[in-house]
Amino acid sequence: MKVTKTPIEGVVIIEPTVFGDERGYFFESFSLREFAEKVRPVNFVQDNESKSKYGVVRGLHFQKGADAQSKLVRVVEGRVLDVAVDIRKGSPTFGQHVAVELSAENKRQFFVPRGFAHGFAVLSETATFQYKCDNYYAPHNEGAVAWDDPALGIDWQIPAAEVILSQKDAHHPTLADAEEQLFDYNTDYYA
Asked: pTM for the complete prediction?
């Protein structure tokens, strides 16, 4: 697999080695050994999948405290714009984001470490989104930041009038108003 660093330390784009012929293709979507060597040691414990239609924005979500999660995300049908936002107070990249297009065609994966908010926008008619988490979902420790916080400056590549949100995602605080929920850059959330 090829690992590409992004402007935010720890957030990486992963491209598998794809073997194809007239029958189709094959690739290894995950290897614990190779991931630990090239990205970081992570013990994924839960796999999730969602299907959404064009215009759906999910996020920007995270799990707090001892329930913090890393995510390894990919798209198996359609295409999305996937976004990771640094919400670690004191970080040199605090409030900055990385956005990458993930699709069934490009087969890219995106690693979002602990300490980041995560979300995606569906750019195709539909998209099936899969992701691994290294901690179990804990509803009592959910956190989120508003997808449209102007301070984040995220171009979701969808006109605002066409964005479809859940009731919950329509009412998250801005990054500035989420101060108590955020991570501390000097804390090791993997320890």
From this structure: 0.95
Return d(Cα 167, Cα 24) in angstroms, integer: 41
64-101 burial, b at 16+ Cβ within 10 Å, e below that, comes to beebbbbbbbbbeebbbbbbbbbbbeebebbbebbbbe
pLDDT tens figures, 43-78: 999 999 999 999 999 999 999 999 999 999 999 999
Interval 77-85 mean pLDDT: 98
Question: Length of the chain, please?
Answer: 191
Q: Rounded to an integer, what distance in angstroms lies between the CA atom of residue 75 and that of residue 27? A: 14
3-state percent helix, strand, coil for the chain, nearest multiple of 5? 15, 40, 45
Tokens at 169, concatenated? 């995602």
Residue 130 contacts residue 98 (beta carbons within 8 Å): no
- Active-site positions read 61, 131
